[in-house]
From TrEMBL, chains A, B:
Alphabetical list of InterPro entries matching this protein: HTH_LacI (IPR000843), LacI/GalR-like_sensor (IPR046335), Lambda_DNA-bd_dom_sf (IPR010982), Peripla_BP_I (IPR028082)
Protein name as catalogued: LacI family DNA-binding transcriptional regulator
An example Gene Ontology molecular-function term: DNA binding
PROSITE patterns, A to Z: HTH_LACI_1, HTH_LACI_2
Lineage start: Bacteria, Bacillati, Bacillota, Bacilli, Bacillales
Length: 315, 315
């Protein structure tokens, strides 16, 4: 093991000078920099984490992929991951993919270059074939065949949404779908449809792509056809509430609206939002714990956490 | 320049095998891994970004430090930085410091190890002495002596808050301070106090530390003493509104509340929040552009963007 002292002796300068160059922390002339770097290379000195990472061991960094950091769901997940990571002397690198496969690939490259100890991803679609990485991966809120994942029971959550609206006496439901290809949204829709079907409550489905058009045009005639609206997440519910209220539609008297996630803001919107609570922070913490076990070669099974209804004033 | 092919020839294996080892992407025996890595080192092969970074050039990664990713202000700043970064073929590493100096130091280490091309920081306090990095730094929403920074006019914003409440006829104002030591909050308070003083409107100041106690205890007798409340940001305003409304205090009739930031959610809360709009996304974009100029050796001056009042139903 070559030490800083060995290196300083070889170059014929002080340990402080060598340290400044290697840590890139303070002045050193280009000439001095070159001499020290060449000696470091020649003597196979490993100055830092990056060098250690190159040396085939894994770094104490994990990569986290989220589709959209602007949705407060993800910062909360990230806090769960990060708090647990810090406790274990790990750090996280966050990649925001914007549902864009190219961006995701770039971040996976960066994770490889940093020799990340593993990856927690909330970006993998159900049709995903290629791993793009040989590192341990835990999928968060996404279930993809042959992968370890953690989610909060999306099927149950979708059922709870429909059950609650039916209990509140709705007769005609609009079921707004989330982004296609994510298992979480698929299962929520599946759960809601199952319960609506069993109870013979007629419903229409609005696709994620059609949603923006409906809300931006404020197509109130369309929305008013229903007395219950099931939203794929709280963010969509905020926008739906906003369009309804701005057009003088009474919520919950005329239309009842239910969200999904229970973001912190859902208690503050008007009317305060009935929603399904996911243990968001816990999902992040557990995902990190699972990843650490996988790294230690301990066998890990996919986890499903519980969800519950939070009744507020929008239903 | 040593190529993969040179390396494969030297080790006596296929290019695919060498690539698998160097990119850590697929199976290679420990023995094979060792042979390839040793040859790579011997021939001074630079397999990837990390190796390039070690070789003294800067990587195409920039580090971003935020105090609290749960405040939607920061994800929006990050989107601005990231969108501009991607356009320029850069990537960002995000560090969430939680106002914790140790966490921040750790992230600065990671940024050094990744040989980041520069750092955008929203975490530096006014009393900050030590840089901890020799890389170019742009401070965002923070002004610290002898550093390049970008902010939206906090002094003006604070003045606008007070002006608006006075115009709405308030007679006794509660001025809630933001976290100490951040220039942005200091300047907002300064602006508000100046205008309140000029107009001889009496006011009391509630420190950031005292705020939680007041809100958690729901000390409504204290809050009701005032007919106007100036909040340091929208998140605080949401909580203040919530306590007031839950205690049957009429907003804006009895108490008028004004926020700061204009987060997306501020149009959805009840009552919808009057606030000061910062060009949050633009702050992020410009910060990245400034950093790129600094990297090119172009002289850069600190920037101050404009803010404006958004009038809604809470005043």
């Amino acid at each position: 093991m070559v030490t800083l002292k060995d290196l300083a002796k070889e170059v014929g300068v002080s340990v402080a000078t060598v340290s400044r160059v290697l840590n890139n922390s303070g002045y050193a002339s280009p000439e001095m920099r070159k001499r020290v770097m060449q000696a470091a290379e020649r003597m196979n000195y490993k100055p830092n984490e990056v060098a250690r990472a190159l040396n085939t061991s894994r770094s104490n960094i994990i990569g986290v992929l989220v589709p959209d950091i602007s949705n407060p769901y993800f910062p909360k997940v990230i806090r769960g991951i990060e708090d647990e990571a810090i406790k274990n002397n790990y750090r996280i690198l966050i990649g925001n993919t914007d549902h864009d496969f190219d961006k995701e690939s770039k971040y996976l490259e960066i994770f490889n270059q940093n020799n990340c100890a593993g990856i927690i991803s909330a970006t993998w679609t159900v049709t995903r074939q290629d791993n793009l990485t040989t590192r341990p991966v835990v999928l968060l809120d996404r279930v993809v065949k042959e992968h370890i994942s953690i989610e909060a029971d999306n099927l149950k959550g979708g059922k709870l949404q429909a059950h609650h609206l039916i209990q509140q006496g709705v007769h005609h439901v609009l079921l707004i779908k989330g982004l296609e290809d994510y298992s979480s949204f698929e299962n929520r829709t599946l759960g809601s449809r199952e319960v609506l079907g069993e109870n013979q409550v007629p419903y229409e489905i609005l696709s994620h792509t059609a949603l923006n058009g409906t809300l931006e045009s404020g197509d109130i005639a369309f929305l008013e056809k229903f007395d219950g609206i099931i939203c794929p997440n709280d963010l969509v519910a905020y926008r739906v509430l906003n369009v309804l209220i701005n057009h003088g539609v009474s919520v919950p008297d005329q239309v009842k609206v239910i969200g999904y996630d229970n973001l912190d803001f859902s208690q503050y919107v008007y009317p305060s939002l009935t929603t399904i609570e996911q243990p968001i922070y816990q999902l992040g913490r557990n995902a990190f714990k699972m990843l650490m076990k996988m790294n230690q070669g301990i066998e890990v099974e996919s986890e499903v956490l519980d969800v519950k209804l939070i009744k507020r004033n929008s239903t």
